[in-house]
Amino acid sequence: MELGRRGATVIINYLKNHEAAKTTVEELKLQGIKTTRIKAHVGEEAAIDSLVSKIENNLVSWISWLIMPLQALCAQLLNFR
Description:
Strand content: 15-25%
Order of helices and strands: HEHEHEH
Largest sheet: 3 strands, parallel
Helix content: 40-55%
CATH topology: Rossmann fold
CATH class: Alpha Beta
Structural class: alpha/beta
Number of strands: 3
Distance between the termini: 30 Å
Shape: globular
Number of helices: 4
Radius of gyration: 13 Å
């Protein structure tokens, strides 16, 4: 949240828990942090490409910060060994 407080745009990535993502976005916005949520399965390469395209083309001109579930991030890192 500190990066958001300093002006970074925060993108919340989620797959199944829409309500938790929505709540997180609402809480960040109440603190004045620019944020949005995008549903994407980061375990699939095509979904990752789509996620990045959505961010680049529709949401922000510069990607400030991307938050994804730690488990998904770890899975991606392990797949790129």
